[in-house]
Structure formats: C-alpha cells, structure tokens
Amino acid sequence: MGRFLFLLIIVAAGLGVLLYLGTWQVQRLAWKEGVLAEIEARIAADPVAVPDQIDRERDRYLPVTVTGAMLQGEIHVLVSVKRVGPGYRILAPFDDGTRVIMIDRGFVPLDDKNTPRAIGPMTITGNLHWPNEVDEYTPEPDVEGEIWFAREVDMASVVLGTDPILLIAKSKTDPNVTPLPVDTSGIPNDHLQYAITWFGLALVWAAMSVFFLWRTRARTES
C-alpha cells in the first residue's frame, strides 16, 4: 500500500507540473496578444513629424511623415518575401531639410538590384524602426558589393552618411519598389503551441499513469 501511495504522489506531482506549465503558457499568450495589439495600434496611428530628439524605445514603430529629397546611394539587404521569392530591401539616404535619415524603400527582385530608382523631392509616410536582425549566424555585410544580410541601422548609417534613424516606408517611393511596411508578423508568438504541447503531455501522462497504477494495484492484490 505504501508503494502504491508513493507512486500516486509521483503521478500527481508530474501532472501538476505539466498543467502548471500549460496554464503559464496560456497566461503568456494573453500577455503577448496584448503587447501585439498595442504595437499594431501604434503602427496604425496618425503620422506625425520625426521627433527632434530620438529615443529608440519610445519612438519604435512611431508613424511619421517626412518631406524632402531622396539622395543617391543605396544598401541592398538580401531578403525573401513569401509567395514572391528572394530579392532586396532598398535602404537609401533621405534629406528632410534638417538632417539626413535612412529610408527602407521596400522590396525589389534580385534582377532589379542595380535598376535606377527615383530620387529627388518626395513625401514619404511610414514607421520608425530599429530592427534587431543580427545574431551570431548573420554574415558580415559585403560593403563593397552593397549586399547586406540584415538591417544594421548603426553600421548602415555610417556607410550612407545618415543619422542612425530608419524610416520604413508605407507609401511608394518608386513605381518598381514594393513597400514592405512594419507589421507584427515577425514578432514570435508561439505560446499557444507551447500550451497545447504541455496540456497534451499532461493528458498522455495522466493516461499512462492510470494504466500503470491499475497494473500495479492489480499485481498487489493478486
């Protein structure tokens, strides 16, 4: 009887841990959905002027409108767009009359890397962003070949001679460049899958435990 009681405690403890982890992931899911909703609302807000003093955390995703002139010079960031294929994000300098910032103009196919694009006066609407796309596996940019593998704002601003401010265009800046506006699709939210995994393991644990305890009890009584 003592052995059976000990096994019952182990089963209950294991089930409790798995159910706790599943419940925690459900709570994390609700938190992440709130964060994403807040970001989406910020992205979709009415655009304002670029602040005089930039704070990267405060101004991340801030919708802005700038008027000025697109300048010569580009950085090409290698990307792949779903249902389209590989190509480049085009980063270029833009003079708004008080400073020079970077514009993420959007996407072009691989063959259009060196196609001339519109420069000169224009008004652009988009969102400020400082993407975190670099990890230990990201190759170093081919600066001479103008091919990059991530939008490294600080390094790119030095190459292009701009302030370290990136505006990701929502409006078109060239007929042949497709804007890739800021959205939340790149922000991971795997908490539902994690919750299903933990609750599934709890179900399997419970079923196996019931069978094991039944077999143990039957052997004890025989």
TrEMBL record:
InterPro entries (UniProt xref): Surf1/Shy1 (IPR002994), Surf1/Surf4 (IPR045214)
Transmembrane among keywords: yes
Subcellular location(s) of the protein: Cell membrane; Membrane
PANTHER family: SURFEIT LOCUS PROTEIN, SURFEIT LOCUS PROTEIN 1
PROSITE patterns, per database record: SURF1 (PS50895)
This protein's UniProt keywords: Cell membrane, Membrane, Transmembrane, Transmembrane helix
Protein name: SURF1-like protein
UniProt GO cellular component terms: plasma membrane
Protease is among the record's keywords: no
Topology in the lipid bilayer: Multi-pass membrane protein
Any Pfam family the entry gives: SURF1
Main location: membrane
Family: Belongs to the SURF1 family.
Record-annotated membrane-spanning stretches: 195-214
